[in-house]
Amino acid sequence: MKRSNIKFGMMNHPAKDTIAEIYKAAELGFDYIDLTLEPPCAGTERFNFKEVKKAIDINGLGIVGHTGWHLNAEAAYPEVRKGVGDSMLWAAKEFSKLGAKYFTYHIRGMAARYIGLKHSIKSQVEVLKRVSDKSNKMGIKLVIEHVTGYKDQFEILDNFFKKIPKLGFHLDVGHANISGSNKNMTPEFLSRYGRRLTHVHFSDNRGRTDDHLPLGVGNIDWKKITDSLKRIDYCGTITLEVFSEDDDYVKLSLKKARTWFSE
Question: What is the Cα–Cα distance from 65 to 90, expressed in whole angstroms?
Fold first, then answer.
């Protein structure tokens, strides 16, 4: 396995200036920016393509795209679902022009307890099939990120991948640690969807909430996680979704991750 081929990226904090975050990613030694288009500072209404492209080019960074976690493709109203799809296609176009080869959508399940998981899945498939088909024609792939390690995530993903074959899988190790069973579900996700794995997020937590802690601060067994990725010869992109006011923790997390994959 050519572990040196793994690229490490930083996600911009949506509450901080996007251009400053791009410069920070370069200063801290990351290979790319995982650009998330989320309010308040990185929402679509404040997105300045020319300035973002200039900052990325000046710093020699790669890019991965990420849509806002709150985009609700399971909405009960068809006009809302259409709007979500339109927003994702707009983002796909901008990401593609910036050089991204894939971009993320978070699966949803929030409304399932009110209108049923079947509706949630059917509605999202409706939106995501349209987005996947059109974004592939732009040369950019849609990848799906789970939001917890609970079992409903597997049911949702199974349906998505069955009905939309060209979707990629985005593993979030921090999310996999929130399973209700004191167990990180990363091995199970990789066992089921490893052949579709396109992108990975690293952050730590203590198994209760998505804390975005520096690596090693929570209770995730990182040796077990990295060994799982090595076993499937993963050589793609890993974003450190670590949010800290002290950049030393981000820099140390990057150093740790690089060391783990060089051993």
Answer: 12
By the 10 Å C-beta count (0-12 exposed, 13-18 middle, 19+ buried), 165 is classed as exposed
pTM, 2 dp: 0.95
- Please answer whether residues 12 and 242 qualify as being in contact, where contact means their C-beta atoms are separated by less than 8 angstroms: no
Separation of first and last alpha carbons in the chain: 11
Residue range 27-83, pLDDT digits in tens: 999 999 999 999 999 988 889 999 999 999 999 999 999 999 889 999 889 999 999
Question: How far apart (Å, rounded) are the C-alpha atoms in residues 178 and 175?
Answer: 5
Element (H, E) at 25: helix 18-27
Assign 16 to helix, strand or coil: coil
User: Half-sphere exposure of residue 74, counting CA atoms within 13 Å on the CB side?
Assistant: 22
Beta bridge partners of 169: 144, 197
Number of domains in the chain: 1
Alpha carbons 40 and 244: distance in angstroms, whole number: 18
CATH number of the domain that residue 45 is part of: 3.20.20.150
d(CA 68, CA 88): 9
Residue among 263, 179, 169, 191 at smallest CA distance from 222 = 263
Around 198, how many Cα atoms within 13 Å sit in the side-chain half-sphere?
20
Cross-strand bridge partners of residue 37: 67
Radius of gyration of the chain (CA): 17
What gap in Å lies between CA 134 and CA 108, rounded to an integer? 21
Pairing of strands 7-11, 237-240: parallel
Domain span at residue 26? Answer: 3-260
pLDDT tens digits, residue range 166-212? 999 999 999 999 998 889 999 999 999 999 999 999 999 999 999 99
| DSSP E strand stretches across 70-220 | 102-106, 141-145, 168-172, 197-202
